[in-house]
Design goal:
Two copies of one chain form a homodimer. In chain A, about 30% of the residues lie in helices and about 25% in strands. By secondary structure, chain A is an alpha+beta fold. The first copy, chain A, has two domains: about 110 residues, 2-Layer Sandwich (60s Ribosomal Protein L30, Chain: A), CATH 3.30.1330; about 170 residues, Alpha-Beta Complex (Phosphoribosyl-aminoimidazole Synthetase, Chain A, domain 2). In chain A, a hairpin with a 2-residue loop joins strand 3 and strand 4. Chain A starts with 13 loop residues before the first helix and ends in a 12-residue tail after the last strand. Chains A and B meet through helix 1, strand 1, strand 2, strand 5 and helix 4 of A and helix 1, strand 1, strand 2, strand 5 and helix 4 of B.
């Protein structure tokens, strides 16, 4: 490992994973943490609970389709949903840089409150810290969350089986490209918005029949590619997805070509990868497409026996390539 | 309210309270949050749970008696204890500034792990973000925590009654003065260490008989004075403490005189203010003094009928003064 922290340690790729496995898991060995899921699943007094945390450092604070407040609430809600939980309670902790206009903070808090109200989740505790000018960057927000997992729901990479359908709940890359285009000041042909949103509606609808959905992951930092590579490696199965089935907006495709980015590694903030029992996936899709947030949900591939531990992309041109964990620089501070 | 965030908004005094009441509670209205306790108390599936969050931005990262890792774990454990909970699970979320030496991060994580092991609390979920050089300050750590509240335990300012004893679990001001002396580079006559520590041992011992302890608060930012002023105002009772009964190290007294600080407003990170049934307080004290962390626990005053809503200090000189919420500048980034 290098001697100092670099930006890529936080970008969600190979270096992030090394930091966690070589440094953090060296000292914190609880089996629930070792699973490295989006949420910890805890058994408490007869019930099962999901517990998760995320610090949000996105730059800029306001972006097309959302802001850091909406992102903080929806990101934590989505992490709870990945554990099959009904989101109940959130904490909200602010690290504010001296000089932040109070009108900005007001707008961000209102946006967080609106998103929480839409989900029906309650903010029940919080904290506020202020750091000197130049020692922060406007605002960082940590949200931790608690949700209850209904009886019979048990989502985990261990439930993934050969033959399962791989679904994605909509177009990929919208968040990453929207942020990047605003940050770098380039114009897209039409306005592209971040997909930043809490997915409780579509996810709870998809899970109406317990047992049909085997595993959920939200492809945030590191994108769809990272989620597929990690799930294949964690479960020791092969995964195959077809490039042309992956829903993508033209603006995202165009921007990625222009910038030399691979869209499967670009961050999303309102999408879910769902591993679903084959044969039931049409039923799940039919439920998903009724929700505006998952109108473009699609079957993109299957879990296979071949190449265990690896995810493979079948390209539009008829070739195939391994979907590896990204090593190099991803987009920093995307969430 | 001013137009921009200033350091005092985060210092725990009057401006912090205004920020919370005028801005945060404007949007987040859940009755549990409105109580503004150290932990939220949630009723879930028959049991009662405490849920809390804290972001730690202390400067410097290493200080006599601890570091940000130990502080993050013990601070959240102490907040759970304030709700009468047995601390069970913590999250750990890092915001790292690019360039932090990995050896420093390693040392901090080890220290957090040691403190968690000493308490018997498990870190079960986490997050890591990295921000560019100059956009953070080495390391910020958020810890959220979950604990279970045993049947029969019900701590709250509402339980405070006229006549109750006011105890403090040891000397005040150690943390604030230790940080300040290191930061400003002045030498104390003998080495003073922060009191930074998790208080599960003394607190659980003090609470052996449910009902005897009515309310707990850890006097961190804003110190003993802020806790007393807030409790008196929240409950609408009078509080009286005697200056000469408040345990204090000579170095803290000396440094406060030199710097013009009032020690009752200086931060602690390993102390507890306990409101205890009068007549039972000797028994509680006798249990506390068996623990090294609360060896100097003392009775400092009583809850009174006079001057409801106000805390009053009886000075050594025979006078008395109102203990108000501090308005001006406290020590920034003390936790």
């Amino acid at each position: 490992m290098s001697e100092r922290i670099v930006l890529a340690h936080g970008a969600g790729g190979r270096l992030s994973r090394r930091l966690v496995s070589e440094l953090i898991l060296k000292y914190f060995g609880h089996p629930v943490l070792r699973r490295l899921e989006d949420s910890a699943v805890l058994e408490l007094s007869g019930g099962r609970w999901a517990f998760t945390t995320d610090s949000h450092v996105i730059r800029p604070l306001f972006f097309p389709g959302g802001d850091i407040g909406k992102l903080a609430v929806s990101g934590t809600v989505n992490d709870l949903l990945c554990a099959g939980a009904r989101p109940l309670y959130l904490s909200l902790s602010l690290i504010i840089e001296e000089g932040l206009p109070i009108v900005d903070l007001d707008r961000i808090l209102r946006s967080a409150a609106d998103e929480a109200a839409a989900v029906g989740v309650n903010i029940v505790c919080g904290d506020t810290k202020v750091v000197e000018r130049g020692k922060g960057d406007g605002l960082f927000i940590n949200t931790a969350g608690v949700g209850s997992i209904p009886t019979g729901v048990d989502l985990s990479p261990e439930k993934i089986r050969v033959g399962d359908a791989i679904l994605v709940s909509g177009t990929i890359g919208d968040h990453g490209i929207a942020i990047l285009s605003q940050r770098e000041g380039f114009e897209l042909h039409s306005s592209l918005e971040s997909d930043c949103a809490a997915l409780h509606g579509p996810v709870l609808a998809a899970m109406e029949h317990p047992g049909v959905v085997h595993c959920l992951r939200d492809p945030t930092r590191g994108g769809l590619g990272t989620v597929l590579a990690e799930m294949a490696a964690d479960r020791g199965v092969g995964m195959e997805v077809e490039q042309e089935r992956i829903p993508m907006r033209d603006q995202v495709r165009g921007a990625c070509e222009m910038l030399g980015l691979d869209p499967i590694y670009v961050a999303n903030e309102g999408k879910m990868v769902m591993i679903v029992e084959w044969g039931q996936h049409e039923e799940v899709l039919s439920r998903l497409v009724k929700y505006p947030l998952s109108r473009r949900a699609a079957l993109i591939g299957r879990v296979v026996e071949e190449h265990p531990g690896m995810a493979v992309l079948r390209t539009s041109a008829g070739g195939s390539r391994i979907i590896d964990l990204p090593t190099g620089e991803l987009i920093p501070r995307i969430c």
